[in-house]
Amino acid sequence: MALDWKETDKLAERVNYWIDRAAALKESDLYFFNQPIDELNGNAHAMVRGRKMLMFASYSYLGLLGHPRINAAAKQAIDDYGTGTHGVRLLAGTLKLHEQLEETIANFKHTEAAITFSSGYVTNLTAVSTLVGRRDTVICDKLNHASIVDGCLLSGAKFARFKHNDMQDLERALQKADSSGVKLVVVDAVFSMDGDVINLPAIMELCRKYRAWLMVDEAHSIGVLGQRGRGIEEHFGLGNVIDIKMGTLSKTIPSVGGYLAGPQNLIQMFKHASRAFIFSAALPPAQAAAARAAFEVILDEPDRVETLTRNAKHFSDGLRQIGFDTMLTTTAIVPVLCGEDERAYRMVQKCQQQDVFVLPVVSPAVPPGLARLRSTVTAGHTPQDIERALDVFETAGRQTGVI
Q: Which sequence positions are flagged as catalytic?
């Protein structure tokens, strides 16, 4: 007979904590998660619960969702291959489309080769746990994404963390690392909760000095940083200086999955040693074709990157002029610091009542007292959209005491 999880035990306490927390928010009309979107109206608007709302929570930074060229590639892939594959990539699951996508990514990122996985989370998990093990050291920025942290823990390597974007603290961690094993430094390019950029030139020099490998997660920098949207190396005017380049196919790229790009031998190793590659289903044909087309569109339509940069500055500057604390952001991720969780929920409530779709980020995703709205800007927003959002934010901020 199966155990009854409703009984009073440790598991029941854990389950009930989350159920009770969600129920309390719903009772106060402050539950804003898992809201189904009825339809998209371009990239700046969405129908939510029957209401047309300005979308300021989208990861579609370049406004590529619904792009006709990308849609056509996905439809053609279904006509050619169907909706799935014959298995995992290592066996019967590799399509010509997968190889074409990986070649496109390698060219986009100026590397010898690339490999794709079923999700961004899985990509970070398998990247770190395949690269390092018990005799090695992995060093992370304290604000790295949870998927990187989980990969570090899974690897069994000695796990060290340095203060956010603090190069002196990173050097201390490198000095303490065991020189007999592999040393791997892993950082986000753009930090998903704060919107600031890692100091890549300084990290690159420290990794060279201490003979450490460097892996950078570019989930939020592809299409956002660099004149052509190629990412953080282009942003800083550097060459091919990152050893392992990770990215997702579900943000600027309107598909699903993740990738690693780097030297040919390293990518070959992942194809035979990565458990996520060996035991996970291959990307569906439509998603692989859509991702490939999206990389091509980014290069063919550079005006989108310019528009995004201009829109992000317009929105961030406007919020700061009103009196909001947007922390250290310099990108399309614009945090609006609210303080306590309750205040962030109230701020979102006021914004959504005025048809601006934003969402709260609260503890434990961020430390207590640092709850915020993580608003995002896209190339699909017009100046009028941004001004409308600023007006709503100002009203909501004054009503809730955020400003």
A: 192, 220, 251
For residues 337 and 341, give the distance between their C-alpha atoms in angstroms, rounded to a whole number.
Answer: 10
If 0-12 CB within 10 Å is exposed, 13-18 middle and 19+ buried, where does residue 4 land?
exposed
Instruction: Kindly state the tokens that stand for 305.
Output: 């990157």
High-pLDDT (> 90) share of the chain, %:
93
Asked if pLDDT for residue 14 goes beyond 80, the answer is yes
CATH superfamily of the 26-55+303-400 domain: Aspartate Aminotransferase, domain 1 (3.90.1150.10)
Which sequence spans correspond to the domains of the chain? Answer: 26-55+303-400, 68-300
The helix/strand/coil state of 384 is helix
51: which strand partners? 48
Decide if pLDDT at 8 tops 80: no
- Token pair, residue 379, equals 């190339």
Q: What is the pLDDT of residue 378?
A: 97
Q: How far apart are CA 41 and CA 39, in angstroms?
A: 7
Question: DSSP string of 333-354?
Answer: EEEEEEESHHHHHHHHHHHHHT
Query: Quick one: which of 60, 97, 96, 123 has its CA closest to 298?
Result: 60
CATH fold, domain 68-300, is Aspartate Aminotransferase; domain 2 (3.40.640)
* Claim: this prediction has a pTM higher than 0.90: yes
How much is the average pLDDT of 181-208?
97
CA distance 280 to 266: 19
